[in-house]
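Hi Y.,

Following your request, here is the sequence exactly as I used it, all 237 residues.
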Amino acid sequence: MLRDAAQWLRTQGATQVIGPMDGDTWHRYRVNAGPFDEPPFLLEPVNPPYYAELWSPFEIVERYSSKRVDDVAPLVAQLAPMHERAMKRGYRLRPFDAARLREELTLVWKLSLEIFRGNAFYFDIALDEFLKLYAGIERLLVPELVLFAETAEGEPVGFLFAYPDSAKGVVDYKTIGVVPAHRRGYLGWALLHRAYASALAMGRPAANHCLMHESNASQSMDAGHGVTFREYYLYTL
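Below is the corresponding structure, written out as tokens. Let me know if you'd prefer a different format.
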């Protein structure tokens, strides 16, 4: 059926067929290819294990993975110099203000448009659609795990979004992003350092680094301490 659908799309003028994807990368996409010996983390995309076999006639066009760090305490010490350098450059970090939910989510949307615009298969979406996608997210929000990075003048230039997992002692680190003009200022490391320290204070030393593209800089943010426990693929024909 997938092959026939792809051939039909070709006859309709499609030059490339990508899947599985619900329109764009804001919505659900990718096949969870396992391994499945560990339970899914909170908000992880899941599918039956045989889905990867269904897509096997197609070529893998993008690869993603999730990594586990069992204890971030050594990373807090390891990343402390990067955090200090970012602060000395005048940057500052602040937690999400839950009392200003719509305004803060709007800021996440604005930053995301700038940060992720160059990603494969990315398309801008309107603010209203973004807010609908994240309706109810406040139930997961812990302000100390959702951080904004700002310049000394107060200009927002990056953010980190993490949330406590349903598993005891675990935090899921979903998104770390810095606008292109400020990517050499150690901000990604500083955000992660601050979030790790907050997670330790909460008694959650384990980290899931979630759904990272194989070429993304976030792949290195475990500083070699992480172990890949799941892979995800996007296919083309």
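The first helix runs from residue 2 to 11.

Thanks again,
Q.
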